[in-house]
Amino acid sequence: MSRLAVRKTYKLYIDGDFPRSESGRSFPALDHKGEVVARVAAGTRKDLRMAVRAARRAQPGWAARTGYNRGQILYRIAEMVEDRAEAFGGAVKLSGVSAAKARREVALAVDRLVWYAGWADKFAQVMGNLNPVSGPFFNISTPEPTGVVGIIAAEPSPLLGLVSRVAPVIVSGNTAVVLASERWPTPSITLAEAMATADVPKGVVNILTGPKAGMVPFLASHLDVNAVDAFGAEPAMMRDIEQEAAAGVKRVVRPPGGEVDWTEAQSPYAIAAFTEIKTVWHPKGL
Predict the structure, then answer these.
(1) Where does residue 18 rank: exposed (0-12), middle (13-18), buried (19+ CB within 10 A)?
(2) Buried (b) or exposed (e) across 164-188, using 16+ Cβ within 10 A?
(3) How far apart are alpha carbons 128 and 279 in whole angstroms?
(4) How many CB atoms lie within 10 A of CB 235?
(5) pLDDT-based confidence at 51, cuts 50/70/90?
(6) What are the residue ranges of helices labelled H in 85-211?
(7) What angle do CA 276, 281, 282 make, to 5 degrees?
(8) pTM over 0.85
(9) SS3 156
(10) pLDDT in tens, 246-266
(11) Which terminal residue of the chain has fewer beta carbons within 10 Å of its beta carbon, N or C?
(12) Which of 141, 145, 120 minimizes the C-alpha distance to 130?
């Protein structure tokens, strides 16, 4: 007897849980041949509001953890991705790459997580400074997290591209609200399933699937979002994103000109892009 495959219905990832979209709607996830492989929740503005609230609640506690502990958790995510490498490879392969390229993207995503985990308790020393001043004072600058960061995931490289933007955002103590790749959403939700079992506190990372056109402007204008990572935004969206963001005086990080090489897209400056520098004065005494 032949049997019918049980196609999965992926849900959103908000506050550590997997709710359905409040609209109850979903859309088909297609492979590169146009065949339906699963169904995915179609997130809405209300879902986005709930994700931002969850991220805001989680942010102070996440920032209060030591860099060493945040590094441990990023390393644990890497372990879970490595453990589920076959599932991740299958999800990446749906985009039309070969099995070998899919395996390589998964391996690079694991390595990228480990690389940023290593920076967790070191970037403050590199990005901070003991400033020279005239007088009996210490003048110290140190980076602090920006807060809640909205991430628009890139459409190419649906796993490595996503990891390359989420990891530097959360490693410093920010929390994230992610709009997943609309064309290739399954790697994003598979990553959410790995995070749910990787000691990531509730609300630190929230991942929404669905049409970006309806959610990107709302993400950019939301007054409780402190910054927007627009690496995955279409060029036609950038003007609207920057105008909406300006009303709330939020930072927008734009992609560099040209196509991003995700195999090389790692830098401590990606961490610094979502930190604020606090400078304090302290008397030396006599």
Answers:
(1) middle
(2) bbbbbbbbbbbbbbbbbbbebbbbb
(3) 9
(4) 8
(5) very high
(6) 85-93, 99-119, 123-127, 160-170, 186-195
(7) 135
(8) yes
(9) coil
(10) 988 999 998 877 677 878 889
(11) N
(12) 141
According to DSSP, the residues that pair with 208 across neighbouring strands are 179
φ, ψ dihedrals at 275, nearest 5°: -125, 160
User: For residue 139, what are its two tokens?
Assistant: 């003048």
Mean pLDDT for the chain overall = 91
Asked if 277 and 141 count as a contact pair (C-beta separation under 8 A), the reply is yes
- Order of strands, sheet of 36-41, starting from the edge strand that comes earlier in the sequence: 8-10, 36-41, 26-30
d(CA 230, CA 255): 7
CB 253 within 8 A of CB 273: yes
Q: Are 142 and 173 in contact (CB under 8 A)?
A: no
Measure the CA–CA gap between 61 and 65, rounded to whole angstroms: 7
Residue given tokens 């179609």 in the structure block = 42
CB 205 within 8 A of CB 195: yes
> With contact defined as beta carbons under 8 Å apart, do 173 and 78 qualify?
no
Whether the pLDDT of residue 120 is over 80: the answer is yes
221-231 tens-digit pLDDT: 999 999 999 98
Quick one: CA dihedral 255, 261, 263, 269, positive or negative? negative
Question: Of how many residues is the chain composed?
Answer: 286
CB 190 within 8 A of CB 89: no
Residue type, 29: A
Tokens representing 83 are 């453990």
Q: Which two tokens stand for residue 154?
A: 């890139």
**Termini Cα distance of the chain:** 88
Strand arrangement of the beta sheet that strand 148-152 belongs to: 205-208, 175-179, 148-152, 227-229, 251-253
